[in-house]
């Protein structure tokens, strides 16, 4: 069993500001204060992350491209030898930004949650977001023709877009000659995706999970996509941190940092264990690991088998470890509308 003496990866949600209103947003970005640090504060977080020496860093949000000094922040980590990936909706992408990102990033990922404007725009909560995402991919493709560039698509799977995976591979992927990958991952019950009605109507059914994990299904998707495009699928169950897997050392060995430097004990659940700007990295990691086997967490997750049960457990964990402010925010979440 691995000791997990430090995180393999770090995810930093650099801001909660966002032009979109995704129905499944785990961070509730665009609906809450951005909690963005000053430019100096961001650089200090970048240095703290570099000191942890993870294999890589993912910059997410919210929308990272809203950060004026984003390139400088990434440069600080890249200079320390870290591979940095940026996850974006593409809403704000332009050629200048794409070229600057290409200079400092190991990977650029555009979130696309529908192979058609109707599906994508409904899930992402803003009309025109599909065309913006396609424009961003076009820009990255043009930059990719100028220099080596690792860019691709990340699609979060819900019941309402599950049947579009083939369409992604057949019609979206071939549009961009330098596209490197398409990644399909099941939505997990974090944030807005943990809402009671959402778990029934949008989290994948057990039959869909079974199909997603079928090697034959993955092979069919790869056959539909251009040979130059890597296609990946995952049910994202590793994020659950089920007690049986934790006991065997099979964990999501990632440290997640909120915009202001607060560190989550487990990425998809509420509850922080300190701040990278004030607490030593080894202390933060020790506290995070302790949460994995906390009796309350173990009890909540031990009987989980279905996505609905996982959502119920997530709500319990969020209420137990979230601060008063977090619980108040949860109480204000709008009920998921069933059309």
Q: CATH architecture, please?
A: Alpha-Beta Barrel
DSSP strand count: 10
Unreliably modeled segments:
none
Distance between the termini: 47 Å
CATH topology: TIM Barrel
Query: What oligomeric arrangement do these chains adopt?
Result: single chain
* Helix and strand run: EHEHEHEHHEHEHHHEHEEEHHHH
**Shape descriptor:** globular
Q: CATH first level: which class?
A: Alpha Beta
* Relative helix content: 40-55%
The CATH H-level homologous superfamily? Aldolase class I
Structural class, from helix and strand content?
alpha/beta
What would you report as the Rg, rounded to the nearest angstrom? 19 Å
Q: Beta-sheet strand percentage?
A: 5-15%
Kindly summarize this structure in a few lines.
It is built from 14 helices and 10 strands. It has 339 residues and is an alpha/beta fold.
Primary descriptors:
alpha/beta, TIM Barrel, ten-stranded mixed beta sheet, 14 helices, globular, 40% helix, 339 residues
Task: Write a structural description.
It contains 14 helices and ten strands. It has 339 residues and is an alpha/beta fold. The chain has a single domain, classed as Alpha-Beta Barrel (TIM Barrel). It has a ten-stranded mixed beta sheet with strand order 7-6-5-4-3-2-1-8-9-10, with helices on one face. Helix 1 runs parallel beside helix 2, helix 6 runs parallel beside helix 9 and helix 12 runs antiparallel to helix 13. The N and C termini lie far apart (47 Å). 43% of the residues are buried.
């Amino acid at each position: 069993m691995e000791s997990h003496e430090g995180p393999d990866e770090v995810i930093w949600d650099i801001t909660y500001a966002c032009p979109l209103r995704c129905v499944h947003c785990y961070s509730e970005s665009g609906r809450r204060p951005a909690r963005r640090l000053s430019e100096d504060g961001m650089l200090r977080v970048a240095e703290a992350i570099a000191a942890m020496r993870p294999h890589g860093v993912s910059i997410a949000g919210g929308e990272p491209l809203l950060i004026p000094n984003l390139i400088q922040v990434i440069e600080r980590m890249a200079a320390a030898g870290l591979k940095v990936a940026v996850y974006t909706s593409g809403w704000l992408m332009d050629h200048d930004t794409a070229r600057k990102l290409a200079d400092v990033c190991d990977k650029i990922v555009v979130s696309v949650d529908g192979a058609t404007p109707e599906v994508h725009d409904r899930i992402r909560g803003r009309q025109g977001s599909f065309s913006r995402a396609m424009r961003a991919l076009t820009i990255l493709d043009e930059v990719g023709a100028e220099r080596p560039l690792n860019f691709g698509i990340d699609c979060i799977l819900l019941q309402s877009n599950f049947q579009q995976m083939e369409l992604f591979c057949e019609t979206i992927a071939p549009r961009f000659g330098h596209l490197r990958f398409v990644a399909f991952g099941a939505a997990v019950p974090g944030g807005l995706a943990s809402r009671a009605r959402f778990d029934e109507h949008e989290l994948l059914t057990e039959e869909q999970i079974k199909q997603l994990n079928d090697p034959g299904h993955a092979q069919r998707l790869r056959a539909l996509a251009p040979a130059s495009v890597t296609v990946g699928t995952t049910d994202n169950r590793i994020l659950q941190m089920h007690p049986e897997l934790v006991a065997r050392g099979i964990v999501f060995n990632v440290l997640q940092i909120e915009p202001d430097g607060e560190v989550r004990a487990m990425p998809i659940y509420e509850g922080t264990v300190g701040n990278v700007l004030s607490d030593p990295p080894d202390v933060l990691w020790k506290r995070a690991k302790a949460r994995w086997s906390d009796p309350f967490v173990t009890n909540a997750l031990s009987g989980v088998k279905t996505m609905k049960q996982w959502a119920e457990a997530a709500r319990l964990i969020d209420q137990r470890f979230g601060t008063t402010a977090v619980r108040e925010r949860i109480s204000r979440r709008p009920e998921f509308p069933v059309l």
